[in-house]
Design goal:
CATH topology: Hypothetical Protein Aq_1857, Chain: A
Low-confidence stretches: none
Helix content: 10-25%
Order of helices and strands: EHEEEEHEEEE
Mean pLDDT: 88
CATH class: Mainly Beta
Strand order of the largest sheet: 4-5-2-3-9-8
CATH architecture: Sandwich
Radius of gyration: 14 Å
Number of helices: 2
Amino acid sequence: MINMTPAAVKAVQRFIRGSETPVAGLRLVISGGGCSGLQYGMKLEAEKAEDDWELDVEGLKLLVDPMTFPMIDNVTVDFIDTLTHTGFKFDNPNASAQCSCGSSFKL
């Protein structure tokens, strides 16, 4: 299960509306990088991959590959818009550590 706050849903819907190409869903992915070893990624996808997990979360189609899903199961995605930071924030109960900026983690 992946949770999205109302602010995150609203932000993603705004990005989808502004897309110049058709959107099949929002891809959530984990890749190597960042100061803690793993980092979150998000992008609008034109089509679903054959082995993707497709989740409906608050009316949004989320696409997650089979390797990423166990690392973000039960994650909560929020969207923060303050004077000092604007962007998506991930609260991941699977992470054993997280960098101070919150953009990378380790399991």
